[in-house]
Amino acid sequence: MSRLTRLTILSAMTLGLVACGGAKLGGGKEGAAQAAFQASQAADRGSKAGAALVEQALASGAATVSLKTSCAKGGNVSLLLDGNNTTTGGGVRYTITYDNCNQDGRNEYNGSMETTITATIDPDFTGAAVVFGMKGKLTIEGEVSDFIDTDVRMTMSVTATSASSGNVSMTLDGSIKTSEGNYEYANESISITAGELPKA
Questions:
Q1: Most buried pick, 7, 13, 34, 55, via CB within 10 A?
Q2: Is residue 96, in this structure, part of any structural domain at all?
Q3: Is the overall model pTM greater than 0.85, yes or no?
Q4: Is a pLDDT exceeding 50 seen at residue 7?
């Protein structure tokens, strides 16, 4: 086999491997918000799964609490909570590490995120609402191959946090960066589709 033939085959294989990667995250501002929302669902799932453990540990005087919980479709998130590090609004602040966390059966998140979760009453939402503050960077691999670099607060109804399909309305304040752009939100109302990520 000639050197040129080997190089041609190697080049074709390399291009094939690149082609197997997922598409970039699409949808502009809404798509970036959609990816952040999906990541927040793992945080909410973890906080609910660990609620009893957290309450028990903090009641015993423990300064910090760590726990691990499964994501909806595979992988897990690890939560580290500092009991002395609450938010000004009375919420809690977690460091969340995503380990192949799969919420939709098609995409996995990896990385770490500083997350605050605060309950609130917001006239834009029926009943109680929850505010997710998310700061950090996560990679996404699967049907979509991209990243989100966030410093954003997302406000939504409590029922929306567990939505796996359909439209979800929320208010965003802050920024989300992806490979497609840097998106700024100023208490902006956004409607996204739960349970999927748009492709560019």
A1: 34
A2: yes
A3: no
A4: no
